[in-house]
Amino acid sequence: MHIPVLKEEVIQYLDVKPNDNFIDATCGNGGHSAAILEKNGPKGKVLAIDRSPEQAENCKLKTKSYGARITTVCDNFANLADIAGRESFKNIKGILFDLGVSSWHLEESGRGFSFQKSEPLDMRFNPENQLTAQKILNFWSKPELTKMFKDYGEERFGERIAQEIVNSRQAKPITDTLQLVEVIRRAVPGFYKRQKIHFATKAFQALRVAVNQELANIEKVLPQALDILAAEGRMVVISFQSLEDRIAKNFFREKAKEGKLEILTKKPIIPSLREIKANPRARSAKLRAAIKK
Ligand SMILES: C[S@@+](CC[C@H](N)C(=O)[O-])C[C@H]1O[C@@H](n2cnc3c(N)ncnc32)[C@H](O)[C@@H]1O
Q1: How far is the CA of 211 from the centre of ligand 1 (A)?
Q2: In what order do the strands lie in the sheet with 21-24?
């Protein structure tokens, strides 16, 4: 099960107080939502959102005991303003984004998020969406694949990987995670395979980001979040890769210059060594927080 990352820090930077309302825009298994609900009783509410239907259900189960204080919806946070409007969720004192993928996706979804076991290359957060990893790998052109690996994975061997994908799929469509790992293995140089970070990490990240349009969604939601927050409301963004972190950092800086928010974290907050030891998935987390002016 997913262990919520930087849990204490999230509560601290959201400044969770009794009877205040919060949005958990990426509720996952509901770990952060439950932590907020523990602190914002007896009347404070949480609107919990997740794009994966199974995760929205997991969150509902986890937070059942809080009754009507939590509303869980399955939707894309890119529709945040509409969701809050639809749910008549008002007086919002804080919004949390804990971006990316959860342990459930990697370990239980069966949708090919992990390069460590054989699964169909799907990678959709929501299975109702049209685009899958298989479609990208088997139908996108070499320049499109190269650009994806560079823009969404900062993968330095993106062009070589794209070329190997194009060669391989002529013989047989690429449909399975371990098949893709082999394609990447053939494409990248020897030293790359001996590094601490697995040689397929960035290519898999790029594919997932492309399938789910993750960066575009973050770009879309941050202005909406600022807009719907109450005065003095807080935004907390936890990211796990530099491209996401850069979007949050630049957004906060730009809005701080315009006098619309104040940055609370000059440098991003990172997990302690103790947290990383207990939960290695926390190791790349960076938390940024700001308060609406
Ligand atoms: C790191 S997990 C969150 C874990 C959660 N904080 C917890 O404590 O269990 C990120 C979650 O965000 C969801 N997600 C990613 N992009 C999303 C989007 N655009 N809209 C809504 N949910 C999204 C994923 O489905 C995933 O469950």
Answers
A1: 15
A2: 70-74, 46-50, 21-24, 92-98, 229-239, 286-292, 261-263
92 and 226 part of one domain: yes
Ligand 1 pocket by C-beta < 6 Å: which residues? 2, 4, 26-32, 49-52, 55, 76-78, 98, 100, 102, 125, 217
Atom 5 (ligand 1): residue with closest C-alpha?
A: 28
Which is the closest atom of ligand 1 to the Cα of 218? 19
**pTM beyond 0.90:** yes
* CATH number of the domain bearing residue 56: 3.40.50.150
Per the prediction, the chain carries an average pLDDT of 97
Domain that holds residue 35: 7-104+214-292
Nearest CA, atom 1, ligand 1: 102
Nearest Cα to Cα of residue 89 among 42, 189, 137, 20? 20
Work out the average pLDDT over 240-252: 97
> Could you tell me if residue 285 is inside a domain?
yes
- Per residue in 188-204, pLDDT (tens digit) is 999 999 999 999 999 99
